[in-house]
């Protein structure tokens, strides 16, 4: 009662270790041979740049400073282009990389928080991207198999707690 509809029980559903499939064939389980690509963005602290395999994510393209990236399995993968992406409505991230060999769209947490002036709050089963000044929840994400995927639904409400009550209440 009083929780947003996206709030889930905080009990972990699985304790399996997450396997990040960063490139086609790189970092995947051996039995998984299909080169599937994810259209969802995920927060990735191990990345050095925000990267995507989809050229349609860019609103402008340029020549990138980097020519290659190194994957988790130490394979060098070519960077085709660079540029700006419109990640959330009108919010833009600069200096992102277009890497067609990727199977996932990776948001570099440090870049996102710096350029969008926000914080990423990570909980056991979800995360929240929140504007530092307005406290607006920009996006939320859901943890699946150890990774935080950005959800498509946007909740533009502020959460405030009533501190003078015996039990805390969530006000929306």
Question: How is this structure best described in words?
Answer:
Helix content is 4%, strand content 37%. A hairpin with an 8-residue loop joins strand 13 (160-161) and strand 14. It is built from one helix and 14 strands; from the N terminus they run ββββββββαββββββ. The radius of gyration is 18 Å and the shape is globular. It has one domain (41-171). The chain has a six-stranded mixed beta sheet with strand order 8-1-12-11-10-9. Strands 2-7-6-3 form a four-stranded mixed beta sheet. The chain has a two-stranded antiparallel ribbon with strand order 4-5. The longest helix has 7 residues, at 109-115. It has 172 residues and is mainly beta.
């Amino acid at each position: 009662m009083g929780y947003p509809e996206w709030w889930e029980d905080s009990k972990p559903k699985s304790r399996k270790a997450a396997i990040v499939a960063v490139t086609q064939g790189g970092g995947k389980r051996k039995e998984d041979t299909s080169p599937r690509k994810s259209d969802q963005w995920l927060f990735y602290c191990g990345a050095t740049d925000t990267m995507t395999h989809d050229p349609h994510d860019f609103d402008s393209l340029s020549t990138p400073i980097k020519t290659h990236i190194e994957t988790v399995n130490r394979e060098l993968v070519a960077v085709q282009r660079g540029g700006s992406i419109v990640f959330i409505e009108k919010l833009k991230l600069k200096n992102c990389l277009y890497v067609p060999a990727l199977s996932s769209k990776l948001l570099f947490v440090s870049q996102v928080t710096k350029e969008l002036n926000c914080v990423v709050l990570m909980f056991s089963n979800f995360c929240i991207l929140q504007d530092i000044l307005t406290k607006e929840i920009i996006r939320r994400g859901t943890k699946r198999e150890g990774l935080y995927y950005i959800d498509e639904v946007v909740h533009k409400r502020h959460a405030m707690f009533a501190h003078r009550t015996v039990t805390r209440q969530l006000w929306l």
